[in-house]
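Incident log, support desk, overnight shift.

02:14 A customer reports that sequence design results differ from what the structure should imply. Their input is reproduced verbatim below. On-call engineer (initials T.W.) acknowledged and began investigating.
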């Protein structure tokens, strides 16, 4: 691709990033993006076959930049995993304090395109989240945390939940609460992992849909669900 064409390509991606984050992935139009990039719509189509492809390209670039930032933290050496979590969640709180913060684009695109699981942008978002979770696993393994895979998944839930609730309520206290909860998870290293509980046949009452219900209610409910099919 000639240099001038590469520059135009990059300008379109940067403009699309601005418009997607400002207006949403669904509401932002190609006309708006072309205007923001100072190109014609015809030129835009010469670089991207569709809005779907452009969305995927924008998220791919955002994923690379995001992981570069996160790796600066994950690649450092910490005395304890809790120290790493303090830094990570602290940086998240600073990011969320920026004016007009709109949360993570990867989560937003999955919500906006919830009925399109095979959409290329959702596939990029899924890969990004998997990479972040794998980075948590590697960090925990490096600091010799038992059941690193299970703990990383729990921390990932707190990480994502903190971003979502902070966006909904405009309250960064959720990030601080998530950080403390994540550190408490790591302090309880003797807890039975979810996978071992399932192997032992244990089901938490809170997760058992038939726990603490009158006799026969479960059969009745299953009959109703079967009728609805």
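02:41 Re-run completed on a clean worker. Output:
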């Amino acid at each position: 691709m000639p240099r001038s064409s590469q520059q135009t390509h990059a300008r379109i991606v940067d403009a699309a990033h601005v418009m997607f984050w400002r207006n949403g992935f669904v509401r932002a139009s190609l006309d708006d993006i072309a205007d923001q990039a100072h190109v014609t719509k015809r030129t835009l189509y010469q670089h991207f076959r569709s809005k779907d492809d452009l969305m995927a390209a924008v998220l791919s670039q955002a994923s690379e930049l995001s992981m570069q930032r996160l790796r600066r933290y994950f690649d450092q050496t910490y005395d304890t995993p809790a120290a790493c979590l303090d830094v990570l969640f602290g940086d998240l709180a600073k990011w969320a304090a920026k004016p007009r913060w709109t949360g993570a684009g990867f989560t937003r695109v999955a919500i906006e395109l919830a009925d399109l699981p095979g959409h290329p942008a959702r596939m990029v978002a899924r890969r990004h989240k998997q990479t972040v979770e794998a980075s948590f696993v590697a960090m925990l393994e490096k600091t010799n945390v038992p059941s690193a895979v299970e703990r990383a998944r729990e921390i990932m839930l707190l990480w994502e939940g903190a971003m979502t609730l902070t966006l909904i309520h405009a309250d960064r206290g959720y990030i601080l609460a998530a950080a403390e909860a994540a550190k408490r998870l790591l302090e309880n290293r003797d807890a039975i992992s979810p996978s071992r509980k399932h192997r032992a046949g244990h089901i938490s009452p809170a997760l058992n849909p038939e726990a603490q219900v009158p006799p026969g209610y479960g059969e009745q409910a299953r009959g109703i669900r079967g009728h609805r099919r």
